[in-house]
């Protein structure tokens, strides 16, 4: 029922935007006493219509726009050669009737150029004013939430990674923009940067008084990225997320395959005696500790991540403040419960792959200080030294590159340095580095991520999909995989999407490790391996080069190897903006409206330059899909969506293409400059070219919608 209501709400919202646009044309036309013959929302055959006075009001079946048909709208002014069958008005049956229409003082062509321009621009102005009204209401309501410009995850081998940004860093200025800076605005500045252009960040790092200044050159990070980025995500809150699967609410906890036992409630306030779920949406983690040890108060996600990393092999006691149905009484402490969350073992098919080259080094990190460079290959790693200060253990060439991150985290916790042997071109050299958890951060697995992050060491590297060895009696061994085999791809089946619904098919997630032309594919085995740790136990398909059929395997938990991931799902960190006075809200709305207009034109320019992908275009299907997602989040987000969409409609309608309002305005400007109507041949040519361009653009945008909807995987 909620889905149906959301769909109806989006239809009505978009229909209202079309209505106010056409209402602008209609109202100004009436102001100048122009005869309006039809006011239509939608095209095609009418769903219903009625006549009031001289105007027919129509609701059409095709909800892709609307129109106001004025008398002789496309015809010539009085005294010009008469054309029959003009669009938007009744077809004159005789030459006499045609001349009567052309000479009618209420026909559109017989108005002054200024009047016709006012009628044309009125629809655009109505959309701009509505967008402004939406923004002003939001800023005045006190209900608007924004994400602060605080770094969450730092993706490996990205501009942010090489610059040395960390989880928890706060970006306080971007290119001298400091006021009202939030994550979305920062991301927009980055996305609309020009080729070769750098963005200047002022960064406030916890524990440091002076801000850091970093200059980063944005780029498209992963295959499929639509805009340039610097490679960061917004930070998460410690509040557990609201999660829906198949439209039904589920707990914000997805038990991974390697979890050693269930999460259990070990202590609770009496008011929570009837609660049976250890984790509920809206709960907030406030303290964490190991059983029998002291508990630490946590207030930020980086603090929680540090504990998860340090004690990833231990069960943890999480103290949560339960969500209250009535949060208006802030003086009453929230009831608490304590949950025992077991550790999560890594699940592995039993493959050791080949370590590829280092792809990036984090500026100021342990690898950078040790002199490691992109292009180096790690060919040997020291075992735990007998003397922590000297790292005097022997180097081992038989190491699993997928376990390298875990080994570096262990060394960081123990406070010991590590020795690495590197291959740099024809040269071999040894370096000593001291891993540091300050560079670690919990990073969600992403499809399309080729590089793995050896976080505590501060470098990223490639895992080449070439099998170096196979663990005896492992799933890979039983499937017949041999050393030297090349893994070309894999398919995971996300059973979490169908949990609780036996009729829903698991969602496939495809990875391509190796292309047919002996090149690495767009996905990395490391990204596949990371995502494997987040899902419930389920078989997956592994494609091996040279074999006709994929192999089906189920990864098994590995004793003594633990991951930071424990299955908890969190809300993004947001801050509520205080309610503004009406004057301040309107002023802030004006700023938001103007910035939105500039951003849309900048996006079009960057798309023409090839800086922004044309895949970012959305047609009616894509707009509708986005609208349903916004409306499901509540009226605040849906009103923001309508405001942004209204501004988009205004800008698109002002493009200098006939039959859009901007194209017709351009023709009227030409007529005004010339002092008489433009030649009919020129007008007709611009109309034919313009209509062709609009139709091609619409077909392309709908094609992008269909690709995203049916072939996005």
Please tag this protein with its features.
single chain; 713 residues; alpha+beta; Pdz3 Domain; 4 domains; five-stranded antiparallel beta sheet; four-stranded antiparallel beta sheet; 15 helices; 31 strands; 31% helix; elongated; hydrolase
What's the topology here?
Elements lengths: L1 H30 L4 E17 L2 E16 L24 H9 L9 H29 L3 E2 L4 E4 L4 H5 L6 E5 L8 H9 L7 E6 L7 E5 L15 E3 L1 E5 L2 E3 L2 E3 L13 E5 L15 E6 L5 E3 L3 H10 L5 E6 L14 E6 L2 E5 L2 E11 L4 H5 L6 E6 L12 E2 L7 H11 L3 E7 L2 E7 L17 E4 L4 E12 L4 H4 L8 E8 L12 E6 L12 H8 L7 E5 L6 E3 L2 E8 L6 E3 L2 E2 L5 H28 L10 H12 L3 H19 L7 H14 L5 H31 L3
Antiparallel strand pairs: 1-2, 3-31, 4-8, 5-6, 6-7, 9-30, 10-11, 12-16, 13-14, 13-15, 15-16, 17-29, 18-24, 19-20, 19-21, 21-22, 23-24, 25-26, 25-27, 27-28
Cofactor: Zn(2+)
Main location: membrane
GO cellular component, one term: membrane
